[in-house]
Amino acid sequence: SLYKARKPWPPDFSKLTPKHKFSLERRYRRRMKLKFARPKLHRTVRLAQMGGIAFVLVYGVLMQSWDGDKNVFSPVR
Predict the structure, then answer these.
(1) Over the stretch 19-69, which tens digit does the pLDDT of each residue have?
(2) Alpha-carbon span 24 to 10, nearest angstrom
(3) 0.85 exceeded by pTM
(4) Eight-state DSSP code of residue 15
(5) Do 63 and 77 contact (CB within 8 A), yes or no?
(6) Backbone phi and psi for residue 66, each to the nearest 5 degrees, phi listed first
(7) How far is 66 from 56, CA to CA, in rounded Å?
(8) Structural contact between residues 73 and 62, judged by C-beta atoms closer than 8 angstroms
(9) How many Cα atoms sit within 13 Å of 67 on the Cβ side?
């Protein structure tokens, strides 16, 4: 290669200080988090969860029969 690396990679972790190890680990974790982020999937899952919660609430309030037919929402049905 034309461009030589300044430091050997991966470094020998047995020779590093705990502070430097933690720094490298935090940097690696941040980069992996950015690389494997799936914003569309997270948005879709969040919308599906909220839709499910809304459906259960609406079903429970308006359509489920609680203690016979008399409840506050009987006229709405």
Answers:
(1) 999 999 999 999 999 999 999 999 999 999 999 999 999 888 777 766 666
(2) 10
(3) no
(4) G
(5) yes
(6) -105, 120
(7) 14
(8) yes
(9) 4
